[in-house]
Write a structure and sequence with these properties.
8-stranded antiparallel β-sheet; two-stranded antiparallel sheet; 10 strands; 38% strand
């Protein structure tokens, strides 16, 4: 039993000293999961995610469709702001997202009819929109 302590004691001291020494802040730099860049002349921002961040939030998109009286948008894509305005996030380039206002006419199950919004065929975020909103507005951030 005495020999076991001879092996464990130095290991415990080594682990304790490693935990006690914090690495300098510059060594702890981690890539930000989202980069937010204001779009000049608007209240909007361009949100660019890292590939890892998009995977982590399981980001998914679906196309806006042309409907009989307007556009059809998946309800999962809708965000409502504090003023009661409806928005979706479009993806003009891979891993880049921009908020686009939607003029909502009504909702039928998982589909929303819109009088105005992104053009038919535009991909909108259906999973991960809340996280994009949080990154853009700072809501839910640290």
């Amino acid at each position: 039993m005495g020999r076991r302590w001879l092996v464990i004691a130095p290991l415990a001291v080594l682990l304790a000293s490693a935990c006690a020494q914090a690495a300098p802040e510059e060594e702890l730099h981690l890539a930000e999961p989202a980069h937010v860049e204001p779009i000049e002349g608007t209240e909007l921002a361009r949100v660019t995610l890292t590939e890892r961040a998009a995977e982590r939030i399981r980001l998914r998109t679906a196309p806006v469709e042309a409907g009989g009286r307007g556009l059809v948008v998946p309800t999962a894509a809708l965000i409502v702001d504090t003023d009661g305005r409806f928005w979706v996030y479009t993806s003009p380039e891979p891993l880049t997202f921009v908020r686009h206002e939607v003029e909502l006419l009504g909702i039928d199950g998982d589909r929303a009819l819109a009088a105005a919004g992104p053009p038919a065929g535009t991909r909108v975020v259906t999973v991960g929109a809340q996280e994009l909103w949080g990154a853009e507005t700072g809501v839910g951030g640290h």
